[in-house]
Amino acid sequence: MEGNGRGNVAEADELARRSDVDVVPTAPEEPDLLGSRRARMLRRLFMVVLFGFLAIGMTGHLGVRSRTTTVRGGEYELSVTYGQMSRGGLATPWSLEIHHPGGFDGPITVSADSKYLDMFDENGFEPEPTKTTATPDEVIWEFDPPDGDTLGISLDARIEPGVQWGKEGRTSVLVDGEPVVTAKYKTWILP
């Protein structure tokens, strides 16, 4: 047999008469059923995972999710509203509400974890602090006392597009340079 490996009928008859050839194979090889079943199962599993991921995304569970944590101490109540879950490039909330019964006697000092704030691309801060100080670990703001007994602070920002995984944050109200109440929280960043 020459050429493309196919012989004619005469060559097959000749092979059948030769004594050194017992059987001339004419059927294709047996398929690998176990391998085929495995490949089919992996394709199905991949499709289930893909459709599950798409369904979760379509319901909004992969977008921004906010949460508020409230702590009390030293006659102060500190509430931090933050993005518990977000994605790079999305506007994500971060705001504070500080309540002190009877109002504030003087400036209010607040510190926040600078590594947490590094996740944000800041667009604005309301109200603007009267004084800002930075240390290697935190940013310290000083605000004028508001009319009333509650100060609201908000950061208009989005998560930097290159941020992965997220970070833990910590915000404190300081009196004479010492924290009297501290809120801890974490923001998860999805891909």
Strand and helix layout:
Elements: H1 9-17, H2 33-58, E1 65-73, E2 76-87, E3 94-99, E4 108-113, H3 114-117, E5 120-126, E6 131-134, E7 138-143, E8 150-159, E9 165-175, E10 178-190
Parallel strand pairs: 2-10
Antiparallel strand pairs: 1-2, 2-3, 3-8, 4-7, 4-9, 5-8, 6-7, 9-10
3D structure, described in words:
The radius of gyration is 34 Å and the shape is rod-shaped. Strands 1, 2, 3, 4, 5, 6, 7, 8, 9 and 10 form a ten-stranded mixed β-sheet that branches. It contains three helices and ten strands, in the order ααββββαββββββ. The chain folds into two domains: 9-58; 65-190, Immunoglobulin-like (Sandwich), CATH 2.60.40.3670. By secondary structure, it is of the alpha+beta class. The mean pLDDT is 85. A hairpin with a 2-residue loop joins strand 1 and strand 2 (76-87).
How large is the radius of gyration? 34 Å
Discrete helix count: 3
Gross morphology is rod-shaped
Give the low-pLDDT segments: none
Q: Could you estimate the helical fraction of the residues in percent?
A: 10-25%
**CATH class categorisation of the largest domain:** Mainly Beta
Number of domains: 2
Beta-strand percent range: 35-45%
CATH topology of the largest domain: Immunoglobulin-like
Mean of the pLDDT scores?
Answer: 85
Q: What is the CATH architecture descriptor of the largest domain?
A: Sandwich
Structural class based on helices, strands and sheet pairing: alpha+beta
Q: For the terminal residues, how far apart are their CA atoms?
A: 59 Å
Number of DSSP E strands: 10
Major sheet: size, sense and barrel closure?
10 strands, mixed
Q: Which series of helices and strands comes N to C? A: HHEEEEHEEEEEE
